[in-house]
Amino acid sequence: MDKFKIIGKSRIAGEVAVSGSKNASLPLLAAMLLPSDETILHNVPTLKDTDTLIKLIAGMGVNIKKEGNTVIADARHVANYYAPYELVRTMRASILVLGALLGRFGEAEVSLPGGCSIGSRPVDQHLKAFEAMGAVINVENGYVKAHAPAGGRLIGCDFTFDMVTVGGTENVIMAASLAKGTTRLENCACEPEVVDLANMLVAMGAKIDGIGTPTMIIEGVESLHGCEYSVIADRIETGSYLAGALMSEGDVLTTNTSAELLHPVLKKFEAMGATITTGDNWIRAVMKGRPKAVDIRTQVHPGFPTDMQAQLMAVCCLADGTSTIIENIFENRFMHVPELNRMGANIRIDGHTAIVTGVEKFSPAPVMATDLRASMSLVMAAACAEGESIIDRIYHIDRGYDNVEQKLKALGVNIERIQG
Question: Which of 382, 400, 401, 402 is nearest to 392 (CA)?
């Protein structure tokens, strides 16, 4: 199993080009099952998760290939509507093929997902919505087996999500785009990745109103056509590299990105003392002196994103004062705390709240990545520690950060991938 060897202390500074969004790419790839002709998707990052979903779609008989950062798919000949456990278990987002298959073909058999250690993240909201659209759903032997009602098409309905769910919103709007009649969805997720999917569906011929709001109205159409589309920038990758500047009195310029995707995070950076400047496709963070302590409460968009909680916690570890971080989205998303404490941090957990008392520096130590975003917090902490740190289980970071070693090296981090 690969590990990272990082030798600090580094000043994290330089320019880094941000890749396409992992969290946007996965539903967009699933949506390539919807039209019966060719779709071209640009700015797709090279990650284990995107590779897994491409492999899953290819297993259904779709002619799909990735050339550089472009994926080309021709889904006119789909051989089966089956997503096996062997692939789905590695990545939760595989469940997104359920909505696309059920919407276009009226049937699907998809393994219940795995691939995540930060909480249960159930798919019941997806299934309730499909049932409201007339689908007959059975969960047998770990698989969701779904069939559209007589006639082979889902039926538009009014449905309110019991809780805000990004994956549920994405799954249902894909299915509703090809349903018979109009679907009105309330309490939808408003994340930029949901907006990106809705915009791509519109480019395919879908009729969707209320994009980016909690209420979306989808008028089903008979069929969708292929399109050419580009994935938005990865806001979490952007924020992760900018956070490195705050931890190390650094100066990081991220390009191919947008401040519109990251307002809540940039406001916290400024509150911590960073100078943030932005342009049409770039964000720069400059830090002089020690960060200031802040309080953070994760929320659904447009609140502070849970996917940036671990990285901001690492910054808070070096802040002047005590920060309070409240995690409202996932129940197990403080698993990085013991690892940061191993590196000299002073963090105390009380339920869903972390109390972080800033220390002057991190200490090098062997640590273990526990999930995707936690892995980046440990990498940045190791880069700021004076000495050698080993980070184990880095397959987590490979799931979400494209070309991570090269980008970190360009920012002055002494990092090496070593065989376990």
Answer: 382
The total of other beta-carbon atoms located within 10 Å of residue 278's CB is 16
Low-confidence ranges of the chain (pLDDT < 70): 114-121, 420
Q: Which of these, 172, 127, 180, 185, lies nearest to 153 by C-alpha position?
A: 180
Omega of the bond prior to 84 within 30 degrees of 0, cis? no
| Domain ranges within the chain, ordered by starting residue | 3-18+233-418, 22-230
Active-site position among 116, 188, 190, 316: 116
Asked whether the beta carbons of 277 and 40 are under 8 A apart, the reply is no
Q: What angle is formed at CA 261 by the lines to CA 251 and CA 10, rounded to 5 degrees?
A: 20
- Is CATH 3.65.10.10 what the domain over 22-230 is classified as, yes or no? yes
pLDDT of residue 120: 46
> Is 384 assigned a catalytic role?
no
Of 136, 142, 140, 209, nearest to 176 by C-alpha is: 209
User: CATH top-level class for 3-18+233-418?
Assistant: alpha beta
User: Which pLDDT score, from 0 to 100, does residue 94 have?
Assistant: 83
